[in-house]
Amino acid sequence: MRSEDVKICVYHARQCDPKKCTTLKLRRHHLVRVVHRIQGLPRGAVILNPFSERAFSPADRERLERKGLAAIDCSWMHADEVFELSMKGASRCLPYLVAANPVNYGVPTKLSTVEALAAALYITGHQAKAERLLSIFKWGLHFIVLNREFLESYAKAKDSLEVVELQKSFIP
User: What are φ and ψ of residue 144, in 5° steps?
Assistant: First the structure.
């Protein structure tokens, strides 16, 4: 499957500043489909969820290619309530990565939606698509520079358990 064929959908909770929102910019560039109801996310997709008990890994590649990749765009202040909503997919938590976005630069795990999507794509072998998403932001490609060692390691892991073990060695 070509990277361009991976379907990406984002639930947008309308909780952020539209001028700084990475999801809305991705939509303007026709790189993601945006829904405003959680039920609008593709059934069976891999859903990036920072509260999930299972780590995202290369083992999620087949599902991601078949059913799609989904993210939730909401304020970090309301994240716990938004992620409690019922979602029909495979919930996965991204491993340890450091934000490159201007709002949370250098903060571990506080990724913007585009960073989360790009990380998932990169880890599952869709590096070109990850770079395409990030390239529309001045700071975007710096996310890969900042996290290259992590991303490359996670991309070589065989499953969620291996990603968790790798992550332990990266967390300061």
Answer: -70, -40
From edge to edge, which strands make up the β-sheet containing 45-48? 33-35, 8-12, 69-73, 45-48, 89-92
pLDDT at 150: 97
Q: How far apart are CA 137 and CA 116, in angstroms?
A: 14
- Of residues 107, 144, 140, 137, the one with CA closest to residue 123: 144
pLDDT band at 105 (very low <50, low <70, confident <90, very high): very high
Q: pTM for the full model?
A: 0.91
Q: Is residue 49 within 8 Å of residue 26, measured between CB atoms?
A: no
Half-sphere exposure of 60 (CA within 13 A, CB side): 32
29-69 tens-digit pLDDT: 999 999 988 888 899 999 998 888 899 999 999 999 999 99
Domain positions in the chain are 3-170
Buried b / exposed e along 140-155 (16+ C-beta atoms within 10 A): beebbebbeebbebbb
Residue type, 43: R
Q: Is 29 exposed, middle or buried (0-12, 13-18, 19+ CB in 10 A)?
A: exposed
